[in-house]
Amino acid sequence: MTCCRSESGETPPGPLLRASYQLGAAVVSFTRSHAAIEAPGCVSGIISRHINHKKWECRLSPTLQSIHDIAAFRPNLLRLDNGTRSVQTGKACCWSETRCLAIVNEAAGAYNQEHGAGSVVNMGQGFFGYNPPEFVLNAAKDALDKVDCNQYSPTKGRPRLKKAIADAYSPFFGKQIDPETEVTITTGANEGMLSAFMGFLEPGDEVIVFEPFFDQYISNIEMPGGKVVYVPLHPPKDGATKTTSAGDWTLDMKELESKITDKTRMMVINTPHNPVGKVFSREELQAIGDLCVKHNIIILSDEVYDRLYYVPFTRPSTLSPEIANLTLTVGSGGKCFYCTGWRVGYLIGPEHLIKYVSAAHTRICFSSVSPLQEATAVAFEQAEQHNFWEESKKGMKAKMDKFNEVWDELGLPYSDPEGGYFVLVNFAKVKLPEDYEFPPHVASRPRDFKLSWFFIKELGIAAIPPTEFFTDANAHIVEDWLRFAVCKDDEVLEKAKERLRGLKKYIQ
């Protein structure tokens, strides 16, 4: 065992957390009093880090793959903070109980109290209103009868699930994915993204995120001390007056490159996009990928809606070997198979990136739920024979088109989605009564919060105010919009449409 020592020969001062990271054949272990490395063979190579303003050296076995690779991607090897880091999310935390959902739930609670429990039609949150297909449910039931499925799974995931994912995605990637070194299973896609940020970010490192954004990105980046750098998607100029394609929301590449600094470590891409519904074009992704290669930036490609696309869909990791070398692809079993409560996510990427995600995941939650991993494996194995992927996509597109008929009927413009199951609708034409009494904490918020409150209280329809997907500087872009989720039963969609027709008297 070779200890980390300072230049004066001392061991690092406490307090240190107890932890262990697998780096190739080397294991870096931390206790409260020292850090050490257990590695076979002789000592070579050095990784340094400043701790409490002193330089400490970790001497590693030559079995470690490449010191150059480690330095290039700057994995966060020494997470030394004792206790929980304060997360300063500010404006950007959409689901905070003091923010968006608290207001939506308050209005819904009042409506349900007056009209009966469950009276509000929830078109806001993106969870499914129906069960997974029978072959997926049966797989879950069968898994519960297996002894090994009721115990801990390997930290990187059950071998059967990793292989099923590798087999399912290899045709897309144009190569055989190694399930043991290029796939890791996580407790939902969100925890997978947190593991990626924890694995690579040091305090002060910057991550570029496109506005609008999934709110969890922000807290996940800030937990390890990262700094979020925002680059907006620009809506079409006529999006408030007529229905346009979600693809018309555009990214200014010059603006994007201007935000890159020597501290930029990662960039988050979400395609198909929540909440816009945009599927980034091949040309857009190529330009983004080329920038990341130029500046050696890791791409975290959030593709949890990757089976729900209605226009040609490109995965960043398929664009070139150089881009693939920098890309971590995030997927969600819950989104794929209508079971968001299962919390089964996965990341696919080159070994030199995946191993640090796996190491962080091990420290965050050790392993993920065994029977649901097994069931998800069966789901991937059997999806093709049930024609599930094609039927799922066709079914969701049909729901989207059917629901959006009500906006055409009312003459309200919307951003026609290219993928996913969310739609943004513009309500600039809807005039709220001037004497309508909003609670002070709603009256002080942007107009979309007032719209959301009004829709719940007067129509019994819950939708999400999308300014919470933006920073304050750009929230004005969507103050007249609301986001709706169409992943509901058809009868729920019809009930929602009927209630929304009550808007006619408010449209000018």
UniProtKB/TrEMBL annotation:
Residues 120-500 form the Aminotransferase class I/classII large domain. Belongs to the class-I pyridoxal-phosphate-dependent aminotransferase family. It comes from the Eukaryota. This is Aminotransferase class I/classII large domain-containing protein. Its cofactor is pyridoxal 5'-phosphate. InterPro entries: Aminotransferase_I/II_large, Kynurenine-oxoglutarate_AT, PyrdxlP-dep_Trfase, PyrdxlP-dep_Trfase_major, PyrdxlP-dep_Trfase_small. Coiled coil: none annotated. The keyword Transferase applies. Keywords: Aminotransferase, Pyridoxal phosphate, Transferase. GO terms for molecular function: kynurenine-oxoglutarate transaminase activity; pyridoxal phosphate binding. GO terms for cellular component: mitochondrion. SUPFAM superfamilies: PLP-dependent transferases.
